[in-house]
Design a protein that fits this description.
This protein has six helices and five strands; from the N terminus they run αβααββββααα. The protein has helices at 2-9, 26-39, 46-57, 112-124, 127-135, 139-147, and strands spanning 10-19, 61-62, 66-67, 80-92, 95-104. A five-stranded mixed sheet has the order 1-4-5-3-2. α1 (2-9) packs antiparallel against α6. The radius of gyration is 14 Å and the shape is globular. The protein starts with a helix and ends with a helix.
Length: 151
């Protein structure tokens, strides 16, 4: 089931809950998250530049209060989803966001990319479910909002 795959992709070592204002800019957040992915071996060095290039082309924020930065190319060493939940909203492109979902997909998992976007569209169109993601207190609660709500 796709929800279980998403649950597996959200790795606790690149999951940041209830982050405070030490992250003042989009660039700061992205650098922090991208550096962690690289240091843990999930992505190659060029992944960071590719994500920034994608953001420069067009911000990946949405009106519902989240951003989904990703690379232009499928190039992750290991597929994963790095999550940052912000305590206070931050302007990201045209929209204030509180949730960042940094997507890193490997070539082996490229078929999950479209499924992920379809799945997340369903989540953000359900205010109760999206609110639960924003209120999750830890990794397990966040993953349970995803996996547990769609059974």
């Amino acid at each position: 089931m796709f929800e279980e795959k998403v649950g597996d992709l959200i790795r606790p070592d690149v999951f940041y809950i209830n982050q405070v204002s030490k992250f003042e800019t989009v660039e700061h957040i992205l650098s922090f998250m991208l550096d962690a992915l690289y240091e843990k071996g999930y992505t190659p060095e060029e992944f960071k530049a590719d994500v920034f290039k994608r953001e420069f082309f067009s911000a990946t924020s949405f009106a519902y209060g989240f951003a989904m930065p990703h690379s232009l190319k499928v190039m992750a060493n290991v597929s994963c989803l790095s999550v940052m939940q912000l305590r206070q909203p931050l302007m990201w492109g045209e929209f204030e966001i509180r949730l960042v979902l940094l997507i890193a997909i490997s070539k082996a998992d490229r078929n999950y990319m479209n499924m992920f976007f379809e799945w997340f569209n369903d989540v953000v169109n359900d205010p109760k479910r999206y609110g639960e993601l924003l209120d999750a207190k830890d990794h397990a609660a966040f993953v349970n909002c995803i996996v547990g709500n769609n059974k």
